[in-house]
Amino acid sequence: MKLSARTRKLMVFGGLALTLVAVYAVDDETQVKQARSTSVRDAPADERPGSARPSASAPATTIALDLSRLKRGANAPQAVDAFGAKDWNPPPRKLTPKEAAAQRAVAEPPPPPPQAPPLPFTYVGMLGAEDETIVFLAQQDTNHAVKKGDVINGTYRVDEVEAGRVVLTYLPLEQRQILTAKVE
Which residues of 77-92 are buried (b: 16+ CB within 10 A; e: fewer)? Predict the structure, then answer.
């Protein structure tokens, strides 16, 4: 069946007209329902439909807006910067407690072992024979005359005495230190 051009145009425009009428009717009906529900909800008890005294001052199409509902709440999504830097790498894998402990052990080197403080003595001189040599040491305002095996102030022990050189042991850490004579 072939339709003429005029018949086809009439059908298209007729369908368009019916569509516009239907949209207008549905849209108008939705607005009326919204107006009724908001005006009934927001109206005082004596002005609601079915109450003893209907109010003539409030028309049925008055729409009251609840502005408190328009404010953003605490769980509203935050604005996203569309042009900000992005990290395209996948998130790091969650480590097991054993792996985390091993990683911390590797990342944090152990603290260095304690070291003996610098020697508080200065070499003053030496006097003696082959079997028993006495070394003179100065510590601030105190002078010490010591030989091999002596303990100074309970912290240093004299281990070896040679010409121009004294080997001392710092007793709290058992570390050996060498004091040499300064040649000037």
Answer: eeeeeeeeeeeeeeee
